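pls design
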């Protein structure tokens, strides 16, 4: 887990990456496929989008470590990073639990000594 960014920022990074419907569909495609079996051209064909568009979406998911990639020859295959997806799920649950608790530091996240573990 990349705690140095703070948990609030990490949740926001994940949410931003999944804020576009094509990327959510890509996650579903990978989730229902064997690991390292979906290529950019597969995504483009399944979703009816261009390969450059598919590549752009995958780069966004890869940048926040929600997906992994593996090159075999000239083809890059994508799969879910299950560890980070589980982390995202846990962070969302924690955010809902802590969301109903007052902040002892007055919501000043930049000065908070618990910024790495606070949601």
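designed seq:
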């Amino acid at each position: 887990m990349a705690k140095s960014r703070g948990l609030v920022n990490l949740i926001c990074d994940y949410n931003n990456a999944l804020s576009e419907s094509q990327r959510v569909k890509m996650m579903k495609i990978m989730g229902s496929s064997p690991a390292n079996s979906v290529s950019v051209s597969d995504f483009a064909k399944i979703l009816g989008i261009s390969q450059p568009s598919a590549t752009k979406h995958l780069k966004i998911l890869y940048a926040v470590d929600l997906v992994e990639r593996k090159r075999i020859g000239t083809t890059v295959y994508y799969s879910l990073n299950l560890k980070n997806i589980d982390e995202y799920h846990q962070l969302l649950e924690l955010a809902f639990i802590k969301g109903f608790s007052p902040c002892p530091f007055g919501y000043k996240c930049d000065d908070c000594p618990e910024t790495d573990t606070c949601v």
